Fold this sequence. Notes:
With about 240 residues, the protein is mainly α. Helices cover about 80% and strands about 0% of the residues.
Amino acid sequence: MFNSIDRREALAAVGVGVLFMIIALVVQDIVQEIPALLFLTRDHFTVSGLVDRLSSFELKNSILYSLYIGITAGFIQEGFTFIAVDTRTRYMAFFIGLGFSAVDIAILSLEMYFEPLIDIHGSMSISGFEWILVSLNVVSSILFHPGTATFMKWGQLRGLGRFTYIISSSMHTVLDGGVVYTDLYVIVDRSMYVEASVMFWIIAIAISVVMFVLGVTKLSSVSDEEEFKKEEPVVF
């Protein structure tokens, strides 16, 4: 699948991924602010105490809130991935996915710089274990986004676009919803910080590896004849 790849075209595809990921995150951020907007509306737009009330709601409804964040992130980001890979040939789907990963990692780096992680003892330093978690986050992103991009491109070419979109979005929901639930769980029970983190990242890396292997393998099975035989564009 990577034979005779034009570097300029690949770089352009990464740029497409970056652009679509930025748009996806803007839309995602707006949708994920709906709970806060609902609280403001209920309190006649009085911001006093909003953070405490919203935090209390998140902790009391951790599963529901995690699902909401996971679903919005998953279906919005993968929706824009679906659209992005449809703008290029199958050879570029992987690189479009890398563009999504690049933005993901850039945001993580900014968060690390401007908002240092606070460990269970309240220290502003980052422990060795936390560096491992950050590294796993980077690895997961590098594997997952190209994986879903290639998987959905394969689905488009085989007439399974909606199916691959739903699968990709569902897996993304597990990842983003899972990290939110893990964070909320640790706030309630700090003694389970290491165990909860290890359990989540084992699942996250497993999902990322599976999606990467599945996507690259499936898309590699498509020939030029199969990709270009249709005159009609792929319609979602």
